[in-house]
Amino acid sequence: MKYNDKKSLRTHKNNDITTGTSLVNPEHVSQSGLCSICTMEGNCEVGKRAKTGETLFPEPFGTAQFGGEKKTPCLDDLQIIPELYGPSIDFEEVKVSSKIGSFQVSLPVTIASMGSTKVAHQYGEALAKGAARAGIPIGVGENVLATYGEKVLKKRLQPFLDHYNGKGALVVQLNENEKNKGLGEKACSLGAQALEIKLGQGAKQELGGEIEFESEEDAKKYREWGYKVKKTDKGTYQRHAKPPKLTDEDLEEYIMGAAEFDLPVWVKTGIGRGIKKLIDKINELNEEHGQIVEVLTIDGHEGGTGMSPWLIMNEMSVPSASLFTKLDYEPNFDILLAGGYNSGADIVKGILIGAQGASMGRSFLIAAGTIKDGERMGADGIVNYINALKEEVQMFTTTLDLEDLNEIRGKKENLLALSEEAGKMFGVSSDIKKVL
Fold first, then answer.
1. d(CA 340, CA 342)
2. Where do the domains of the chain lie, and which CATH numbers do they carry?
């Protein structure tokens, strides 16, 4: 295929439902994504920027969730190659229970930390209850304390504790603003089982968490908490959490500070230049001080969010599974991959590449919010979804002639990249002769 024959990697540039924009002549679009014949009506992304003086955020905020749509090599570009010789295995007998850090889990999947956005808040209690019933960890994300207060934070945590069956974990995420306001102490008193240091996320690394709101009283409160508050062209406000600074010294301070609460420490970040250095430093701190950090979640391209600049979501980052082309040793902590994961195949491919499991956000919101017989599924949707993922993972593990999901980790020889680009992205062979 010649370069000029390829379709645009962002199909809806300047003409996208997420930004509320349109082109005058969508059937005549230049390579730049602009109309070949422009009548200056200003309904495209360029025109909207000119009208507002602001970068564009996806809409409708608060009732929807978003993920980047730019095409990059992804897990769909990998095929799982089965084993022909081996024992007969009943897929329902395949073991999929595992450990994430020090926690027993029914499946190596976590509900990614989602914080104060309206859609995450709406389903927060159902997510916590469902996670406990399903036996998987859940992260309660940033800015819940700042936005809703300690009473609501407790409501987000308590359903997990009420339904905890010995598997999973209740993880509370700390950002820079809330850490300085004593969230660590409050989380511990409310029953948190681990603390997660937020260094970033795939959709907006280095920008901090963002929401939109209308109240001047809230704007004043957030400024007092140290958030950046910006008034928009629409008369609303944007709140931007303080992004963490990162040097080896800062990272050590964050980790050792979280360790003072005597709970397992998790870390979440996006993927970018310096990821190997970050992993090396965490590994070094564990060697020096004992197993402080148990889990690192790496979020990548297509990672969803409640609110992120649309341009940033599409034009930044790479899939998190590409990490393993850079990593040349086994860290002394678990690595979870995030960013668009939503099926048993995704989970298995991530583990085959080298991860211990996957972290999902949007998928679980969909599961909780799905309507059946006129009602939202809530926690039942989470439990059903996990049961379906388990079955899919068991089936794939059986095709590899293994009886335990934990045995497939790092078996890249059972993956075929469907293009050279995908092979280079994930460190997987695209040569069918070598794979079969």
1. 6
2. 1-53 (no CATH), 75-435 (3.20.20.70)
